[in-house]
Amino acid sequence: SPSTASPAHSASTASTVITNIAALVTNDPSLGDRSPLGLIQDAAVVIEGDRVAWTGESSKAPATDNRVDAEGRAVIPGFVDSHSHLVFAGDRTQEFNARMSGRSYTAGGIRTTVAATRAATDAQLEANLTHYLTEALRQGTTTFETKSGYGLTVADEARALRIAARHTDEVTYLGAHIVPPDHADDPAAYVALVTGEMLDACAPYARWIDVFCEQGAFDGDQARAILTAGKAKGLHPRVHANQLSYGPGVQLAVELDAASADHCTHLTDDDIEALANSSTVATLLPGAEFSTRAEWPDARRLLDAGVTVALSTDCNPGSSFTSSVPFCIALAVRDMRMTPDEAVWSATAGGAAALRRTDIGRLTPGAYADLALLDAPSHVHLAYRPGVPLVSQVWRRGVPVT
Ligand code: NIG
Ligand code: FE
Asked: From which residue to which does the signal peptide run (predicted)?
């Protein structure tokens, strides 16, 4: 039945109806086919200001100022990319070449990007960030989280977050990405810096705190100390967990009620059970396994255990240099045993869950009008037609952006 946005949101100037949508993914399971995607056929969506005001059958759509004919194509919520590393300079082409010749990925490559990032000006970092954001937006990403982690000094981490905060509300302090070369002899002193002066300088710009909990980065005890210090400063935890090896990251994420445990490539049955009994989302990042020629995370095992799964790009110059959520959806379906419906849900509603947001990742009255019109009759084509640029138009906060 028709409904309107709350009065706080209806001070909008213009309204738009998109009609003749062959398949509309709402992610509201009470709508349409009653599946998790809440798929409505022959649908319309009404946008008022920056919000969704109405969804339903195309023939019942209310009249509005503007009308867009979807011509039998599909509409989905904009992608919520809940894991990226976009404040950096330079690239790692040589390292990628070496890897594709047989060398394996290690955390150590991060140092190359740290050196390039420290040497860059603020303007260069911001131009780089804007470049990748524009790229992502054209491919349907309307919300993104991004992190520091390539500065690793008080000033360089704080400036990364200051720059990121101009472009997104979902900013993550990752001073604990690796122990930088300048602290190689004294990791404990670096942890003290990350939990002390650096945290004080970074907390004003960030919502989240993250740690790379991994061999060659930070162990479980260090990670607990860092995340606990962040919590005490009002930051909420998320964790790079169990990417390269089995380890304590996932259990720690659950223990600290992290919004998300990210990567989740090497999981024991206990890890899966801990996630299933928690509100911590497992964020899978298949671009990383693709670009490092690593074993795929087993999405099926997580889903069958009842874990909430998000799908994101991990876009960064080392382990996953893609900004394309559609590419990650195709990988997840082909190689991680997800169905196309599950992958599309995870890249939209799943990403929103990993950011503990209910105002994005769904197309229901009151949610932000962040949506993508596909050059395809169904969202399934995102996996079925890999590598094809199917996102033909994007609205962000009700405004057409492409
Ligand atoms: O999520 N795993 C740690 N951090 C990144 C890689 C960063 C890099 O190699 O520059 C990741 O994969
Ligand atoms: Fe990452």
From this structure: none
